[in-house]
Amino acid sequence: DRRLRVLAGANLVMVSAAIAPMLWILPAFARGQAGVPAAAIGIIYAVNAATILVAQLRITRAASRRGPLRALALASAGWAVAWATAAVVGALLRGWPAALGLAAVLVIYAVSECVYTAVLIPSVVAIAPQHVRGRYLGIIGFTWQAGFSIGPPIAASVLATTPLVFPIGEGAICVLLACLLAAMPHM
Q1: Rounded CA gap, 1 and 127, in Å?
Q2: How far is it, in rounded angstroms, from Cα 107 to Cα 93?
Q3: What are the CA-CA distances from residue 153 to residues 40, 166, 176 (Å)?
Q4: Which of 2, 14, 97, 113 has the fewest CB atoms in 10 Å of its CB?
């Protein structure tokens, strides 16, 4: 099913370049590049959780009115903005001001995450024939796990050698994916 391949491929890239590095590698970037105090890391991620809590229902309603590829392109573009903002924060700010900037990054990230979660699994369920729905969902689950296996090691390697290239590279991948998804015909 071409539609499943598109969704699975997009999910693999999104998890590898946006979700997993944001959750696992951004704290190292915050501490090492921006000198964010350790105590601020939890606060930054609490802002992420609070944003999801407040925004999820509204965003789910709005995202459901878009085609799935357009909504996923929007999520990827939002993650590109988050990564670009992280690069600017890492280049210009240190300490608590950087923590505030990265909290703003996690707000942008959370809004895009809400769009992504509102669209991906419902789209997979909608395209799956009932007798193989579990297989379709299993493939998407596999791409989630594969993204967490691929993204963080690559991101950590880049961070270790060229810290500012880390968010710029992740953002560039998200921009490319957003353009590809936006250019595809509707599902």
Answers
A1: 9
A2: 18
A3: 24, 12, 21
A4: 2
* Predicted model pTM: 0.95
The letter for the amino acid at 67 is G
Q: Evaluate whether 35 touches 98 at the Cβ level (below 8 Å).
A: yes
| Residues 25/167, Cβ–Cβ less than 8 Å | no
Question: Is pLDDT at 16 greater than 90 in this prediction?
Answer: yes
Dmax (CA) for the chain in angstroms is 54
pLDDT at 40: 98
Decide if 128 contacts 55 (C-beta within 8 A). Answer: no
81-138 residue pLDDT tens: 999 999 999 999 999 999 999 999 999 999 999 999 999 999 999 999 999 999 999 9
HEC sequence for the chain: CHHHHHHHHHHHHHHHHHHHHHHHCHHHHHHHCCCCCHHHHHHHHHHHHHHHHHHHHHHHHHHCCCCHHHHHHHHHHHHHHHHHHHHHHHHHCCHHHHHHHHHHHHHHHHHHHHHHHHHHHHHHHHHCCHHHHHHHHHHHHHHHHHHHHHHHHHHHHHHHHCCCHHHHHHHHHHHHHHHHHHHCCCC
